[in-house]
Amino acid sequence: MKLASFRVRSSGAVCFGAEWPLPGPPSLIDLVKAWSLYAEENSGSQLSHDELQEDLPSDAIRFIEGGAEQLARARSALYHCVRRAADAPGHRALVERGVLYPVSEVGFLPPVPRPGKVISLGVNYPTHLAEAAALPSVQRLKSGPGLPRAFSKLPSVLIGHREPVVYPRMTKQLDYEIELALVIGKRCKNVPRNMAADVIYGYTIFNDISMRDVQQDEMAIGLLLLGKNFDTSGPIGPWLVTADEIANPNSLDLTLSVNGDVRQRDNTRNMLRAVPEIIEYWSQVTLEAGDVISTGTPAGVGIFSNPPEKFLLRPGDRLEATITGLGTLENTVVPQRD
To answer: Does the N terminus or the C terminus of the chain have fewer Cβ atoms within 10 A?
Structure first.
């Protein structure tokens, strides 16, 4: 399933739902209301709010923690509504009951709005390693295998599909990085790579936005925090695609474009550390349901382009990050106003 967290513009209500699979205007289904309808029409009784939240919670992390059982309920609810919408009156009834929303009436949130942890890998593609070769930190990495490079993104900096990336006044070098991201499905620790698939709930698209000038100043003193962690620096989504729909996460095409101009293009098969190794290493710290691990970016980022001034981001730029099977994450850069 393609799952999503979203906010209804008219009411402000936050919902957990899924992509509507039938042809027509792109829409999202509120899975909790869909389950309520399914239960009502199959048992003849209405579930209370508490019963609904127990059966199919609206909180993304609680839903993920429910594992296969929650997902089976969500699918039953979705397919029930699909059958109900076989004709125009049935479709209209779903809209009128607030079960189904046209995408134009909602705002996407991060698929997991506040994950406990966001771990972001660095220099995990040979092409990105090569383009960054002049950096002292990369020269040390090239001298031997070393430890995986990574940093934390604060959960509060995540934003959803089509939410604006705010260009901070403190930087002159705003940059992009498309990445495949994994979402953990259950609490786990010390997971061997041959068991990695068992703890991955699904996949999404991540765009690691950076203030390169701030980042490089920080790295010169052995720190990496603000350059990667300013408000709106973590676009993610639009979907959390469940793992059963992605046959091989190590064979996915990635493409990022700015204003329609392709800047990054690669395939996850070229990652220096593949998904199972990433899980094995980072599960040395306890991972929990909803935690996000992004897997690094390929070549083509703005700061290493020639000349960088031409490729770094500016207010008004439109970003589109696409990964096979995961859709396209779109965001627009806007100036800081406050």
So the answer is: C
Q: CA 185, CA 203: separation in Å to the nearest integer?
A: 11
Q: Which fold has domain 118-335?
A: Fumarylacetoacetate hydrolase; domain 2 (3.90.850)
Rounded mean pLDDT, 11-26: 95
Going by the DSSP 8-state scheme, the letter that residue 247 receives in this structure is S
Q: Are 297 and 263 in contact (CB under 8 A)?
A: no
- By 3-state DSSP, what share of the chain in percent is helix, strand and coil, each rounded to 5? 35, 30, 40
| Residue 136: band (very low, low, confident or very high) from pLDDT cuts 50, 70, 90 | low
pLDDT at 313 over 70: yes
- Does domain 2-108 sit in CATH 2.60.120.10? no
SS3 7: strand
Instruction: Tell me the pLDDT tens digit for each residue of 32-82.
Output: 999 999 988 887 778 777 887 888 999 999 999 999 999 999 999 999 999
Indicate the burial class of 156 (C-beta count within 10 angstroms; 0-12, 13-18, 19 or more): exposed
Burial of residue 305 (CB within 10 Å: 0-12, 13-18, 19+) is middle
Sequence spans of domains, the chain: 2-108, 118-335
pLDDT of 221 strictly over 90: yes
Residue 163: phi, psi to the nearest 5? -80, 150
**CB neighbours (10 Å) of residue 41?**
10
User: From CA 46, how far away is CA 39, in angstroms rounded?
Assistant: 7
Token readout for 223 is 């720190």
